Amino acid sequence: MNDFEYCVPTRVLFGRGTHREVGAVVKEYGFKKILVHFGGGSVKKSGLLDQVTASLKEHGIEYVLLGGVKPNPTLSLAKEGMELCRKEKIEFILAVGGGSVLDSAKCIADGALNPDIDPWKFFLKEAVPKKALPHGNILTLSASGSETSLSCVITNEDGGYKRGFNSPTHRPLFAILNPELTFSVSKFQTGCGTVDIMMHTLERYLGGSTKNTPLTDRIAEGLLVSVMEAGAVADKDPENYEARATLMWAGSLSHNGLTGLGRDYMMQVHQMEHELSGLYPAIAHGAGLSALFCSWARYVCGEDPMRFAQLAVRVMKVEMDFEDPMKTAWNGIKRLEEFFQSLSMPVSLRELHASIKEEDFETMAEKCSSHGTRTLPGIKALGKPEMMDIYRLAF
Predict the structure, then answer these.
(1) Of the four, 17, 84, 133, 211, which is 20 to 30 A from 294 by CA?
(2) Cα(27)–Cα(293) distance, rounded to whole angstroms?
(3) How far is CA 387 from the centre of its chain?
(4) What single string gives the DSSP state of each residue in 156-201?
(5) Phi, psi of 255 (to 5 degrees)
């Protein structure tokens, strides 16, 4: 087990009706004027936005609204939010939505108090936020884990670059998690969320070379089994509270560092998917991950077949073939692929987007490798040629 530092300071309010407490929670911290950030029309149609603003009014909190966040949130809208925060002297940002809204709010929080720095430099690792506005969230989609994580991912429309970076400034002050708010999430988005939650743990579990992490392994395996069970139930019974609750809490635990403690890892599939949805913004992140992951797994599993065999036996319920661990590993990947298919998730690029062309693979690999200057470390190092191999395999 490697040395590690673990700190997840976000206050979590979990359960039925918790979103109605938001005004009281914001008031506790002494904020008097806030930005309420959200996506499209769903929070309005569902009445959630009205419930949130009513709670804020009840507790004397002044607010400014900024909607319009789309899947794969954009830098241009975040910049608009930064200017708005400075103009209105905003003290706190409340994100109401899924991971895209939360990431957009984090980007706004960083940029609002650093007007002398181009916010894109944070994502290029050329600058670090000196300070940031505090922020919190009301989650409406179980997927990204952004509600308690230190990560933030934004798409720069200039060139179609989708990039992320980690910062302590990205830890929300609080997260309000009411599983009831996910009852109306579509079958497709529920499947995407289930995949995304699993990938955050699978890439930690499989993506490095660290040995002897038995406790972390068991935590990760338990989470994966629970998510698969809950995802299957929510797919058929979208208003099953216990299934939705499991997915919502697992989403937070899967991406706040817990399932990778003591391990080295690189989320290679996430990096490669960012280029995919950066090039084609209509692609949902979870669907992109499901289209790539099993091809990536088949490409790299020969580097550590026993690791993949362990996953196959403990999570995918494959019988161990001690004479041929690679066979066990491949059977585990096949069962994982079948699970994705049971949720109507794509397992190839051809299924994902009709417009994807083979010539795109070099473009994506070129960008992911920072024009040939970056190699992704991990169970198998991936440079531009290896990335192109995986894209082709997934096609």
Answers:
(1) 211
(2) 43
(3) 21
(4) ETTTTEEEEEE-GGGS-SEEEE-GGGGTT--HHHHHHHHHHHHHHH
(5) -125, 15
| Contact between residue 359 and residue 284 where contact means Cβ atoms under 8 Å apart | no
Decide: 148 and 171 in contact? Cβ < 8 Å.
yes
Q: How far apart are the first and last CA of the chain?
A: 36
Domain ranges of the chain: 11-181, 186-394
- State which amino acid sits at residue 52: V
Average pLDDT over residues 124-135: 95
186-394 CATH fold: Dehydroquinate synthase-like, alpha domain (1.20.1090)
123/162 Cα distance (integer angstroms)? 9
> Tokens 């979103």 sit at which residue?
19
Supply the pTM of this predicted model: 0.94
Per the CB < 8 A criterion, the answer to whether 96 and 41 are in contact is no
Within 10 angstroms of residue 351's Cβ, the number of other Cβ atoms is 15
Burial grade of 172 (CB within 10 A; 0-12, 13-18, 19 or more): buried
Give the pLDDT mean for 39-51. Answer: 92
Span 11-181 CATH architecture: 3-Layer(aba) Sandwich (3.40)
- Give the pair of three-digit tokens for residue 192: 């995407």
369-378: long-range pairs with CB below 8 Å, 24+: 376/266, 376/268, 376/271, 377/266, 378/207, 378/208, 378/265, 378/266, 378/268, 378/300
pLDDT in tens, 263-272: 999 999 999 9
Residue 362: count of CB within 10 angstroms of its CB: 13
Residue 293 contacts residue 202 (beta carbons within 8 Å): yes
Which residue from 151, 240, 140, 137 is spatially nearest to 200, judged by alpha carbons?
A: 151
For residue 112, give both structure tokens. 């609002």
From residue 150, how far is each of 92, 106, 255 by CA, in Å? 17, 9, 9
Query: Cβ distance 107 to 83 under 8 Å?
Result: no
CA 390 to CA 361: how far, in whole Å? Answer: 9
Whole-angstrom distance, CA of residue 210 vs CA of residue 385:
25
Fold matches, 11-181 and 186-394: no
* Residue whose C-alpha is closest to residue 144's, from 198, 181, 108: 198
